[in-house]
User: Fold this.
Amino acid sequence: MTMTLVNKAGFNDQQLIEAYRKMCLIRLFEEKVDYFFAKGMIHGTTHLCVGQEAAAVGSGSVLRHSDWITATHRGHGQTITKGTDINKMMAELFGKTSGTNKGKGGSMHIADIATGNLGANGVVGGGYPIACGAALTAQMKHTDQICLCYAGDGSTNEGSFHESLNMASIWKLPVVFFIENNQYGMSGPIKETVNIQDLSTRALSYGMPGITIDGNDLIAVIDAVYDAVERARKGEGPTLIEAKTYRWKGHSKSDAKKYRTREEEEQWKTERDPIANFKAKLIRAGLLSEAESEEILVKAAEVIENAVAFAEAGSKPDEDQLMTDIYAE
Amino acid sequence: MREITYTEAVREALSEAMREDESVFILGEDIGIYGGAFGVTRGMLEEFGPKRIRHTPISESAIAGAAVGAAITGMRPIFELQFSDFITIALDQIVNQAAKIHYMYGGNVSIPLVMRTPGGSGTGAAAQHSQSLENWTAHIPGLIVIQPSTAYDAKGLLHSAIANNNPVMFYEHKLCYRTKGDVPEGKYFIPIGVADIKRQGKDISVIATSYMVHKALEAAEILAKEGIDIEVVDPRTLVPLDKKTIVDSVKKTGRALVVTEAVKRSGFSSELAAVISEEESFDYLDHPIVRLAGAETPIPYEPTLEKLAVPQVNDIVTACRNIMAAK
Assistant:
């Protein structure tokens, strides 16, 4: 006896299991990347989205291939969901020419125009105006594409947030602003850096709908983003969504996490793990068994191992790459 | 050939490009019914409509960034910054986004956009509306920087800028707007990265940018009566810089005077002087390179002080006389 998990996007059982698989894949990808950085096997830095998988997958799953996203510096999950080849992502982190950006961008700048990913951004709030510009293209060319603009809680205090949300609203741009509120801008708790409970209430001042959701509840994310995407596609303008979530890891690889308690972390991990909770939901609905879940994990681990092998097999850029592609032809 | 103003030349290039290519559009503050703070887009709203002559909120970061996003996704936006001083608000999108995306993404996408903006002093607009900040963008790899001094150059270079697949910073000068020159009708291109010798001469190479070209040409007339024959070299584009034309000119004259309106310290005049010293022109110098540039001060309001802040015709004349007098 199975039960349907009702969702506004109309995803069927298979699609929901696929969403679950993607969340698992993202977590394993991030944990593998964490391992490589901790071991010093990859240089530079990275920002991991472990704990935020439902926000990435719930939102990205609603999009069409032709839609665009602007990703954040914590964007691996967003990028995987939009359809970027994991092999190329891993190769990019390894600095290989087979990477998404030929090894020149690294974790913070992964972009994949072919899948509609206009790029992760190393500047907090940097993606807001760019997302408006992409949406403007869709509007001017009369396509039905939309742009999903990912951003973090901290970025809502940037000027670009204000300028862009206002512009998007007055021009009714087909854009969805999706804030992953993971509670901290690096070390700054959002509750100390804004004087409001819900970031989505800021939407009021731009004349657009705003909604705060449990970003760790996959179905809640799907529903909210589906409504916002439909609204944008119909030409009714932007929406501001705040998805409350939590980043399990530190800000980047150097973080001792002195600004929060281990108890708080444990609570989010045990009570509000987006993957465990959705798995329980699938099992309760009779859509997934423990054995099937185990198989999904095993297969996801294989995909990650293959990505590592692909990355390791790639070549480092030649020295002449230093001065290549500074200007376009 | 017919004579038109610099303003009209810029407007013609914009209009011709927009008639030819639907993906070209303009966004900026007050560019619609007002016609832009300096009247450059006057009449364009009537021809092209509000979707393509897009009046924006006062939001320079969103204006610049929307241009970046539109460029990545297949449009060819032109954005007008009402005064080049306001680039401070737009710089993240220009410097960290537009300039870097092509390289950072491994060459997988291009950013065909143009920023048009008026710089310079001389209108009594005081410290926050009169600066010459072009070297800020000239410093950033990934940007092209153009500073046309004449109506003819403005039109031909703007056509090249719009057709270029990179972010192009197009610095106009407020005092150039009303200058007139012979400008062909219809579309023509002046290649980016090619300097122009505005006046041939044998005694001193005066390398001048933007409105300083006009002042140098005026100085040349005065100096000619005294038997001093200066050559006026206009780089026209700062990035890429046509070093060869500058170096060849200095090799010919053996003397170099660099004239820019921008503040002297760390300004583009420093770059021009460095090029002359680094290249083989150095061996031909009969006199140390002289720089005339903006005083190291904010631009003051009061007209006498404002004039004192940037090189004037007399300063160029005096500098040239001194160079020729030294033995």
User: Anything to note?
Assistant: Residues 21 and 237 of chain A are 32 Å apart (CA to CA).
